[in-house]
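Feature request, filed as a ticket because there's no other form

It would be nice if the structure record came with a short human-readable summary line next to the tokens. Right now we just get the raw output. Example of a typical job, pasted below so the devs can see what we mean:
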Amino acid sequence: MTDAEAHADGVEDLDAIVAAADRFIRKQLPSAWVDAVDRGDIDAMFAARSSVEPADIWKRVAAGGYIVPTWSVEHGGLGLSPRAGAATMRVLGRYRLPSFQSTVGVDLVGPALLKWGTTEQQQRYLRPIAGYHEIWCQLFSEPGAGSDLAGLALRATRDGDSWLLNGQKVWTGMGDVADLGLLLARTAPELPKHRGITVFLLPMDFPGVTIRPIRQLTGEAEFSEIFIDDVVIDDSMRLGAENEGWRVATSVLMNERRAVSASGASMPGTVTGRSITALIARHAPLADWSLRQRLAQAYIEDKVVTLTNQRAADRRRAGQPPGPEGSIGKLLFSEHTQRLQNLAVDLEGCAAQAWPEDDRWLKGTAWSLLRVRSKTIAGGTSEIQRNILGERILGLPKEPEVDRDVAWSQVLRS
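Raw output as currently delivered:
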């Protein structure tokens, strides 16, 4: 059966689709890389991978439609169902492809364009995302608007068919390498905060855009603060209706929580840290009863997260809108993965404090412990997720909001 026949006539042969994906991926990788994966030789695989530019690999994968397999062929995908798309992601995961830099484009911007974009916007931006040719960032959070995102202050003032942008964004992942950003701006300060926001598609190389990296615990600078001074943008770069950006933002945030909780068909290599499977393989059986109990608890939590993600996937397959699983999964996953990385370090004992420079496992374990601190903040804090679940799912009284129906311009801000 050919690759095309694997999902012809609307009937998907999952085994054929997986086999087609496997054949395709093997052709895109150096033979030494494929041979190392087949032998289970992780060190040889990493050595082969280090000789290849990650962007080149991803562009080859993208050329086959495999970074957005559930998108239509017209938009650069394969038109697969979510179930088949997830199966192809598992194929990619087997070959341990390098770090993926287009998560925002694939998981957040793409779905937003498909739902809210004009035909012209979809034709212009979806294929470059699918082809790994344009990297996106998310320009949402501000120094005074993080958990209270609707309180954002970056201003967009209309002047005929263009807009003048002024303000600042912060904690922008991929901001230093992105080609474009999905931007939230305040367009009607006389309206309450949720009703005066508009979404724009901002080229990051426009005059007036200044990007400054933020150094983090790991020593890396994955995030940036963005200064936007007198940036002029055409109205054709507006996504969705004027002053209706909160609806767009809400759909993006739901997709972000699903992606952060690993409940979508996310690209491999985007989840931080050691897996429970790897820890069991490395350390079991354990003589220390307390560590053994923590390992068992981590295994249970991993299964709960997996089952919750499956519920979310079932809703999508049934054509239902995102449900509480997004916030539940995000909360479960972010706190579970922090406990898991703490356990990974404790299992190594003193070796996790100092290690030979060439010990990739120990070095990566220490890095994961530091990097995973952000998991309960990024994509919506755990406190916010608990508020959402308490109010919208359990029906508990809402947090007091004295400013919800007050014009944003009249709300006191620091």
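Something like this underneath would help us a lot:
The chain is about 45% helix and 15% strand.
Confidence is low (pLDDT under 50) at residues 1-5, 263-271.
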